[in-house]
Amino acid sequence: MTLSFRRRLISVGVVIGALTLGGAGIGTAQASTSHTQLSRPATAKPTVVLVHGAWADGSSWDKVAAKLQHDGYRVVTPPNLLSGVKNDADNLRAYLDTITGPIVLVGHSYGGMVITNAALGDKQVKALVYVDAYLPDQHDTVLSLTSAMPGSVFAAEASTVFDQVAIPGDDPHNVNLYVKPSIFGTAFADKSIPAKDVAVLAARQRPLAFNALVEESGEPAWRTIPSWSVIGKQDAVIPAAQQIAMSKRAKAHTIEINAPHLSMVTDAGAVTNQIEAAAKATD
């Protein structure tokens, strides 16, 4: 490994959460992720699309999805490829094209990078909701946003935070990053999430490609689409002060709750209420 690349990896320690695990939903509700055209009556509620963060999958939204479905919303949780901002946004945009009618697009952590780019120019997306997430402007990266203010638990030597695995056939610098199991509890959860559940999350994590940390975001969709934000005041991944600054820049309708990075798991009710507030504003 070259010295310059080692330095880049070390700097990533500051931002590991940016990647954000977002995967703590050991719940039972499984939202539909059908790739067929999702038709809906003209008078129906908007479809809510929940986009997970890094080192996670759609199950991180289980509790929120169940509440939304109970309240009559169609919910889908498409996979986030975690391969890089542009590619992930392109794949999400293709998925959104299969949905008929208005959409409320929700992203957690790194998912905020993806929805900001995927929704640009999509007239069906009526609202963006950011949950403990990045709200990037053009040229921002996960790395730059995570290190913009102090307070992230990941401001540490990268080798103490994650393991790296080569991606066959790819640039050797673009490795897959896995969060070390010892990091999960402190970074993403609080005592309300049982240790046994945190251990399961660590075991089933999906990796984030290194490129996703350093790839620049494009023109932000929040300039033309109304946005809402949920900020966990105890977030140890993306400091609350940074989330507040990004939300103000985007002129987002913001609530702050006493929650860790995985607020959709610990405070699913508050997160659901904010999503439904955004949905009702589209009527």
Provide a compact summary of the structure.
The protein is α/β, with parallel strands linked by helices and 283 residues long. 35% of the residues lie in helices and 14% in strands. It is globular, with a radius of gyration of 17 Å.
Structure description:
This protein is α/β, with parallel strands linked by helices. It has a single domain (about 5-280), classed as Rossmann fold. It contains twelve helices and nine strands. The strands form two sheets. A six-stranded parallel β-sheet has the order 2-1-3-4-8-9, sandwiched between helices. Strands 5-6-7 form a three-stranded antiparallel β-sheet. Helix 5 (about 110-120) links the parallel strand 3 and strand 4 (about 125-130). Helix 3 packs across helix 12 (about 270-280) and helix 4 (about 85-95) packs across helix 5. The longest helix is centred in the C-terminal third of the chain and has 14 residues, at about 270-280. The radius of gyration is 17 Å and the shape is globular. The model is unreliable at about 1-5 and about 15-35 (pLDDT under 50).
Residue runs with pLDDT of under 50 for 5 or more positions: 1-7, 14-37
Radius of gyration, taken over Cα atoms and rounded to an integer in Å: 17 Å
CATH domain class name: Alpha Beta
Helix content: 25-40%
Return the domain count: 1
Main sheet specs: 6 strands, parallel
The third-level CATH topology is: Rossmann fold
Strand order of the largest sheet: 2-1-3-4-8-9
Please report the number of helical segments: 12
| CATH architecture assignment | 3-Layer(aba) Sandwich
Shape: globular
Question: Which structural category fits the helices and strands?
Answer: alpha/beta
Mean pLDDT: 87
Binned strand content: 5-15%
Q: What order do the SSEs take from the amino end to the carboxyl end, as H and E?
A: HHEHEHEHEHEEHHEHEHEHH
Number of strands: 9
Distance between the termini: 54 Å
